């Protein structure tokens, strides 16, 4: 199989992995995290294309490949983020998402996990529960992609069924891992789907596509305290049952 990376065609043996492949994949998985502060450093378009080209090899049922990607940088990104944040703040945080991302109401054990994640993040930033203005300001940073130089928006054909959402998840993870292999970081953001009208207006998204989520892409700020936060993962024994 041939694939274009870094502007050049390269041959890939789909039957064989290089000796150090396991270590590379493991490192990408273990160092991937949701980064919420980025450096003001450009990501070259060639790198973005390489990441997306690699991610396009994610599996999908019947090879539907249900993903549509809109990449915003520069002036377009600045105008988009300004409009998204303004819309979010003017709505007082009211959600306009076109689909349910979470169960409603959120029940255990998921409620405890959500709270531990949220309050753990805010504690890292020194934000107390009663500081409503600071909480709102931090949440509003979602809509500027945490100052990342690249904002990606993902849409899906409205006709797609539940299976294609599973496909999409594998595509998004593939983007995150391909980014890590290039020294880049990401933050997948369901919050971007809370302002679909703004996104569609600025990026000319056709009406037959639904805004699914966004993703920040760039170089992590190593000095930002917020990037020190990492939520706990469940042990294998918690979510797995083995049968022999």
UniProtKB/TrEMBL annotation:
CDD domains, per the entry: PnbA_NfnB-like
Annotated Pfam families: Nitroreductase
Q: Which InterPro entries match?
A: Nitroreductase (IPR029479), Nitroreductase-like (IPR000415)
Where does the source fall among the domains of life? Answer: Bacteria
Q: Where is the signal peptide?
A: none
Q: Which GO molecular function entries does the Swiss-Prot or TrEMBL record give?
A: oxidoreductase activity
Q: Does this entry carry the keyword Oxidoreductase?
A: yes
Needed co-factor(s): FMN
Q: Which UniProt keyword terms apply here?
A: Flavoprotein, FMN, Oxidoreductase
Nitroreductase domain location: 30-219
Q: Into which family does the record put it?
A: Belongs to the nitroreductase family.
Name the chain's protein.
Answer: Oxygen-insensitive NADPH nitroreductase
Q: What is the native source organism of this protein?
A: Caballeronia sordidicola
Question: Upper lineage ranks?
Answer: Bacteria, Pseudomonadati, Pseudomonadota, Betaproteobacteria, Burkholderiales
């Amino acid at each position: 199989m041939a694939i274009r990376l870094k502007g050049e065609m390269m041959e890939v043996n789909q039957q064989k992995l290089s000796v150090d492949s396991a270590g590379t994949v493991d490192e990408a998985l273990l160092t991937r995290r949701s980064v919420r502060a980025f450096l003001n450093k450009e990501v070259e378009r060639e790198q973005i294309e390489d990441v997306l080209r690699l991610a396009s090899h994610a599996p999908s049922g019947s090879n539907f490949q249900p993903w549509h990607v809109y990449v915003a940088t520069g002036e377009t990104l600045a105008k988009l983020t300004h409009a998204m944040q303004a819309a979010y703040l003017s709505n007082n945080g009211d959600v306009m998402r076109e689909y349910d991302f979470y169960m409603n109401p959120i029940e255990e054990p998921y409620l405890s996990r959500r709270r531990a994640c949220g309050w753990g993040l805010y504690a890292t930033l020194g934000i107390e529960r009663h500081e409503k203005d600071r909480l709102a300001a931090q949440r509003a940073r979602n809509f500027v992609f945490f100052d990342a130089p690249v904002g990606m928006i993902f849409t899906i054909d409205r006709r797609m069924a539940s299976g294609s959402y599973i496909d999409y998840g594998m595509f998004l993870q593939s983007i995150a891992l391909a980014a890590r292999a290039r020294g880049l970081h990401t933050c997948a953001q369901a919050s971007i789907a809370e302002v679909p009208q703004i996104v569609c207006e600025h990026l000319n998204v056709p009406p037959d596509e639904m805004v699914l989520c966004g993703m920040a892409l760039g170089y992590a700020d190593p000095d930002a305290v917020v990037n020190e936060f990492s939520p706990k993962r469940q042990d294998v024994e918690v979510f797995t049952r083995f049968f022999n």
